[in-house]
Inverse folding.
């Protein structure tokens, strides 16, 4: 099946963004959905996905192919079987998870490289990896698996680099938001700007066709209510709690990128995860350091 034939299947219905959203994306400066991601998701929704076709598409991008194989073999997913090629990675992960993995691999590329952003992406990567590890450690709840937790960790703050490009003084606003111990993070942004990074990140995730629970979690990840009203948003609340704890564990281990978010959302996050702040937390901190050391050795 040709690229054109694959593409037409997704140009109508729930796969198409409405014109108003598209205009908003252009105005804010959100990177357009990568074509290869579009093709993977369209194929995943087909009755009989063509894995050979998708493997050929991905293999045309050497870095993307290597990255997908590396993701499939990553210790934070915990698959016993190892793969050496893209087709087997697609079969192992499944197309939905593979599409999310491809989105995460492409994410760094769509923004101009800088030292500041490299640190940001590295922190997001570790948050995603630790969130996936926490699922393995604490169990699946509300349908949130390790793959979902990993993707959310990568994309949770993807609105920040968009805001950096769109608003010249955003770095200073970001610093003030990190230092504010009382107001919600997004309230600090909205006091000075017409939007916030959570809304922008949610729009980007939606435009990149990420699963709706992940889009919702991105939009609401600075809201305490998403953690306290699980009846209304269980999957989103679970993802926010996992990432919040993962970020806390990474910050404690590395001493980098500290903020007041754990002070604001930590207790509610632990409640969602069924943890206390004493011996259980100390045990997790020790295990997380060992896990991060294992990841570093695997690089």
């Amino acid at each position: 099946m040709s690229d054109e034939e694959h593409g037409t299947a997704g140009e109508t219905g729930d796969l198409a963004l409405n014109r108003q959203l598209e205009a908003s994306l252009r105005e804010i400066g959100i990177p357009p959905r990568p074509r290869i991601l579009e093709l993977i998701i369209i194929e995943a929704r087909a009755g009989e996905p063509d894995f050979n076709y998708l493997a050929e598409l991905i293999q045309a991008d050497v870095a993307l192919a290597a990255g997908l194989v590396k993701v499939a073999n990553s210790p934070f997913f915990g698959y016993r079987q190892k793969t050496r090629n893209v087709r087997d990675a697609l079969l192992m992960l499944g197309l939905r998870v593979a599409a999310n993995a491809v989105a995460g691999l492409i994410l760094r590329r769509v923004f101009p490289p800088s030292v500041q952003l490299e640190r940001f992406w590295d922190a997001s990567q570790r948050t995603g990896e630790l969130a996936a590890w926490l699922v393995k450690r604490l169990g699946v709840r509300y349908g949130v698996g390790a793959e979902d937790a990993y993707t959310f960790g990568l994309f949770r703050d993807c609105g920040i680099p968009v805001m950096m490009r769109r608003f010249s003084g955003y770095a200073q606003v970001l610093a003030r938001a990190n230092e504010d111990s009382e107001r919600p993070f997004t309230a600090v942004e909205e006091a000075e700007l017409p939007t916030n990074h959570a809304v922008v990140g949610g729009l980007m995730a939606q435009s990149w066709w990420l699963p709706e629970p992940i889009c919702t979690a991105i939009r609401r990840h600075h809201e305490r209510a998403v953690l306290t009203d699980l009846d209304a948003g269980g999957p989103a609340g679970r993802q926010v709690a996992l990432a919040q704890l993962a970020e806390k564990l990474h910050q404690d281990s590395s001493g980098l990128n500290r903020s007041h978010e754990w002070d604001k959302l930590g207790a509610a996050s632990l409640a969602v995860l069924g943890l206390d702040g004493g011996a259980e937390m100390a045990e997790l901190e020790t295990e997380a350091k060992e896990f991060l050391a294992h990841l570093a050795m695997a690089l």
